[in-house]
Amino acid sequence: AQVAQRFPLQSAVTTLGRQGADINFPDDDYLSPLHAQFLYLDGILTVRDLGSKNGTWLYLDEPHKLSDGDLVLLGSQILRFRRLGYPGPRPPEQDQTRRLGSLTPAADIANLAQVRADGSPRDILTLSPGRTARLGREQGDWQFPYDSSMSALHALIRSEDADFVLVDAGSRNGLAVAVRGERRVPPNARLLAGDQMLRAELG
Predict the structure, then answer these.
(1) Phi and psi at residue 132, in whole multiples of 5°?
(2) 116 contacts 132 by C-beta, under 8 angstroms
């Protein structure tokens, strides 16, 4: 992708938004007036979302361990990761009698929900220990055939012990996670704020 414009960070704190920020994109209807803040100290760049409506997204260059509430951008789909609990022994029945049942994973301990524009969930994929979930336009456990911005096989969610790790499966557009709190921005990382694709040029 061609660099359209460069914005040198003139001070330690730089804000980005539609209006009233240090760096403004007045024609971007997806940007909040004050959308995100960059902090550059001792050669380290961090980003914080300022409560924007559409979030600030950091593209992943390496596998990402999912935390409860993480929002993931996959093609043009927004997915929310929810932790349902950790597998553990079932509480004993009152009279100590054990129930007979099929041997299954101790629990479905997490899920991914497709998020609509109003924030409500649409489809849900259940994640369980010991199973890798594959997501893509044409291949995998969860397919999005109508999403042309997604690769045939876009991402994997690997089960690692009791954790789930998001991995890019060689997609052409990459994977991004919504910034929560303050997040370090690696050199050359790509960020999405509103309709603006940004690259951090550090060094």
Answers:
(1) -95, 130
(2) no
Q: Taking a C-beta distance cutoff of 8 angstroms, is the pair 48, 185 a contact?
A: no
How far is the CA of 135 from the CAs of 112, 145, 146, 158, 173, in angstroms? 11, 11, 13, 11, 14
DSSP characters over 52-114? -SS-EEEE-SS-EE--TT-EEEETTEEEEEEE-----PPPPPTT-PPPP-----S---EEEEE
Output the CA torsion sign for 3, 5, 11, 17: negative
The token pair that represents 136 in the structure block = 């893509």
Mean pLDDT, consecutive 10-residue stretches, the chain (203 aa), reads 79 95 95 96 94 96 95 96 70 66 65 93 91 96 96 96 93 96 94 94 76
